[in-house]
Here is the input.
Amino acid sequence: MNPSNRATVFRDRTDAAHQLAAQLQPYRGKKPLVLAIPRGAVPMAKSLAAALEGDFDVVLVRKLRAPFAPEVAIGSVDESGWTYLSPYAATAGADQDYIAAEKQRQLEVIRQRRVQYTPIRPPLNPAGRIVIVVDDGLATGATMVAALHGLRQRHPAKLICAVPVSSPEALAMVRPLADEVLCLQAPAEFHAVGQFYRDFSQVEDDEVIALLQP
Here is the structure.
């Protein structure tokens, strides 16, 4: 489905996952690896993996928060420590010392989540597989950039970004990083991911841990 300026609102993340699954049917039966960016996308990815007869796991990345505005992403970091910085990081007041400290804070969250989420097994290996990276929406696109970059280094056969909704700017930024991008809508009037869901309840760690159980 091509993104358009006609915005629709999803009932919840389950509705969004079902709509993505309908568009991803060509990969059904090809054992895709569906990876969620925690936490919001985890229920979606679990549903998608079941619909596509694939495997399910998480890809751990974190946004780097702007000083005095933690909801604003000035970049992102992946599990290996690779860092993406947005062009406006400096104008947001983030100097090198702040960025270094924020990176370490977020890497510690990643380490804690790995211990919580997959304590008895390593992450599933994406090498040579069709990999579908899922998020519940892209605002800045920063965490998706880190996820796609990190996964590309691990040599998947095909790397796909799948999201229900995105800002046009974020969509343009991630397109070169994936072999395929599926976005159900990228409306011009984009302010926040939550505006496109009637129910955008927070997903807690306990739910993520339960969904990742074998």
Q: What stands out?
A: Strands lie at 33-36, 55-58, 61-66, 69-78, 83-85, 130-134, 158-165, 180-185. The chain has two domains: 13-60+123-211, 63-116. Residues 96 and 176 are 27 Å apart (CA to CA).
